[in-house]
Structures are given as C-alpha cells and as structure tokens.
Hints:
The protein has helices at residues 5-46, 53-66, 84-87, 91-94, 97-110, 161-164, 167-174, 201-211, 215-218, 222-226, 228-258, 265-276; strands at residues 115-121, 127-136, 139-144, 149-150, 189-190. The longest helix has 42 residues, at 5-46. With 282 residues, it is of the alpha+beta class. It contains 12 helices and 5 strands.
Amino acid sequence: MKRHPVYRIVWITTNCFLAIAVAAFIASAVWEYSTRQYLKGFSDAVVPHDVAPQQKVESILMWMAHGPAREGLQDPDEILARDPRNTLNYEKLLDVCGGATNAFLNLSVSSGLRARRVLLLDSHRMTTHVAAEVLLDGRWIVVDPAFRVIMRDDSGRMLTRDDLENRESFRQATSTLRGYLPVYNYSVTAHVRVPRIPIIGNFLRSGLDWAWPHWQEFLDWTLILERDSLAAFFCSFIALVFLMFTRLILGHYGEKKLGVSHVRLRRQVWQAGVMLMGNQRI
C-alpha cells in the first residue's frame, strides 16, 4: 500500500468514516428505541385498549384539548420541535399546527393506527397549514390536530382530502372552527416539502413528480420527517450501507488493479477479540 499513497489515504479515510457511521448507527438505534418505548408508555396512558380506531383518534384529540397542564415555554426555538418528548410536554408546541400534528402522529402510530401528515399549500406551493390523515374503514380521513377535530360534514360523515376539495364540504367542515383561515384549504396538498432542501429542492420535486407521480404515496415519509430520532437512524443506516459498499469496491479495486492485499475485516475483528482475551498468539 505504501506504493500507492493516494489509494492509502482514500482507504484510511473510508475506514474512519465507516467507524463513525457504525457508532452513529448504534447511537441512533438506541435513541429511537428509547423514543419508541416512551411513546408506547404515553399512548397506553392516553388511548384505551381494544377500542375502535375512530375512538383512538378521538381519545388522542380529547387528551390534546383537555389533558393535564403542561410546561410553559418562552422560546420554542430553544428546543427540538420534532422530538416527541418535547411536543407532548410543552403547551406552546401543541398550540401550533406543526407541533400538534407531530404529537398526534406519534401517538397515533404508537397506538397502532396508520397515520400520516398532510401539508396544505398555497398557489406558490408554500405551506399554509399542517394536518393529518388517518386510515379509518379503508379511507384516509382528515384530522386537524391544531383544532382538535376530525373533519366532518353536516351529516357527521368523516371527510377525506378529496371530499374537502369540494367547497361546500369544506365550508361545512370548517365553519364552526374558531380561527380557521380560508387559506387552510385542500386544493393543493403534499406529504413531503421537498423545496425545503436548499438549492436543488424545486428541481428535485419537479423531477420526482415527472418521473414517478406517486412517489409520495409509495413510502410513508411521515415519521422520518416528524421524529428526529428516526431521521437520525434512517440517515445513519443509509450512510453505513453506502460506506460498507464503498469499502468493498475499494478493497476489490486495490487487490485486482493495484495488487494491494488487505486483512479482512472479520479477521481484524477476530484478532482484536483474541488480543482482548489476553491471547498473544495470533
């Protein structure tokens, strides 16, 4: 390897990044596990067992509207708004649509419901409001956690996004909601706000919409976008797989093209284990 200094630098750098990725993956896995355990305990206390999915939704909304007093917060920017422990315990975060939706979605999924967020966009595709959808009786029913309500028409029928595109249904569902703005409509919606990605966001959204019109529906992006621990776990997993694949390709290239021999990773692990056990004969 000394005869190929550039390759040596790339090899060592890749291994260093791989070690960091392994550590990040383990740490994020522990973080996500502890978050799930916390949410499971919280949802068990809020949502009754063995009730219909609709009753679970209503229980979560009832807790959000009339639950016990929660901590005050002077500056919401001081804490992680996408950490469920924060959104469930700070009053001010539950008063804004993003924080309320975050709390609702995490409790819904932890109680066994299928739920996802829905972004209401204006004509410039800027987000005006955030709500949620829950799969009830085979239909994605709209729930607005900020207003603590399941969207219904005058007959009590639960409404979907498609239903709320109808002006009369929209009027019936929102006319009694104090403070509900007309711009919070369902004419343009999305599940993922790709334009938030700097520089390439708008181009990426256009490309995905053109090449794969239903990409937002293919994968449930909600919890990755709403839970910091899961986002960290997902990103560290992608980085780990990428670096392992890169290391494999580099090793193959070095052996076949440059004549560089490497001690196999499993051999290195075995040698380290033997050293730790005090056996010096390797």
